[in-house]
Amino acid sequence: MTDERKTQLSRLPQVTTVLGQPEVQALTAELPRWAVVQAVRDELADQRRQLQASPTEPTEAKWLPAPATIEQRARELVRSPLRRVINATGVVLHTNLGRAPLAKQALRRVEELGGGYCNLEYQLDSGTRGSRQQPLGQILRGLTGAPAHLIVNNNAAAVLLTLAGLCAGRQVLVSRGELVEIGGSFRIPDVMRASGALLCEVGTTNRTHLRDYLSAVSESTAAFLKVHRSNFAQVGFVAEVSPAELAKSAHERGLLCLYDLGAGELQTSRRRPEREPAHDVEQLDEEGLGFASPREPTVAELIGQGCDVVMFSGDKLLGGPQAGIVCGTKEAIGPLARHPLLRALRPDKLTLAALLGTLELYRDGQPEQVPAWQMLHESESALRARAERLQAEAAQQGLVTELVRVRSAVGGGARPLHKPWSWAVTPPLPSDRVLTVQAALRCQDLPVVARIFAGRLLCDVRTIAASEVTIVAEALARAVVATPVD
Ligand SMILES: *Cc1c(COP(=O)(O)O)cnc(C)c1O
Fold it and tell me: Which residue has the higher pLDDT, 268 or 19?
């Protein structure tokens, strides 16, 4: 290092000098002292690195960091690392954005039960120890028709526990068309291996018949497992065995019929679909396949058809907290309740509270109070009205936008063919600015996550709450103005 560079570095102020400045001192009235100290250290370290790297002569004035810079750094240090965002993607169960937003009733239960003590594992009548699985029993029996149940951390845990508890060391027959991978790391063959059960593939990729299962049955077979094709679909020359048929054949042979349902709808829509209105605006249709989304079986239907165990997620179509629900016969659930893995997979009281609040809404015939249910069943006319409001509010902010008809997605690895029409607001942008404006939306104080499709930046109103429209309009206007045109 040259002598000159050394003197430059030595002229950097001490941490205590910077902290002694009245404006910096004043910051500690509002921000924790550790954050202000850390901010000063980080800023000085950055300046030191810059001095060492840069060949240019620094000006003396730059050497006392501006209090505003320190404040900004300190605020970033104390800002919550988990932040609320606005989902403008139109993907209702966006796994990266936390899947299902909770219903007010679920949040009320979390506040009430999480903020104090509760009878989590305590029987109030006898004053003796109880099971945390017990309190939700009655409501789950009513909604699923299954006499027994267990709640675990998520559906992956539900499948793992079921296979470990009922099939370890024995064969489980699965159709080759159902060896699914769900986003991330859930793959049926891998979970099967981890559980100690032995996977026996039957049938072919596109067609599996009852005779395929029957001819594979051996002394060591424990169960037939059906896995819902949650995140993909098969079309063309395809065949699968219905759960009713599979359960009947399993029982005739003393075997179990298990069903990994994944998304787990408790009830199907009571609303009739709207008639398609005429549209004179641009429509961005990302599939054009015209598939009708097949009706999915509900949990109660599968139990009614004789499945011994049905497993599903709490935060997919149910719209509750992350959880896995295993429901079925007393004979099948009993060994799972005694299995040592259950202790490792059990849910905490906050999950149970939120799940209870969500299930209460289904029990009381108010599924529209569940945000994910409401978003998925929103009428196209209501969506259009919300998009028009967003467009009008953006115009008030000085931003001209267009309205386009788009397709939303269910997401969360559920109902891959269901792409309901929705409405989006899109700012007219040259293609080289689409990504920068999308990034600028993410960098707002309340980040807005928007989707790009067909070269357009879309704010799909299906997942934007009515109370968020104004925030999105303002953020959009700011983001378009803030990103330079070059
Ligand atoms: C989503 C899904 C899972 C995993 O459920 P998580 O609750 O995300 O753990 C397992 N099986 C199927 C069929 C699914 O759709």
Answer: 19
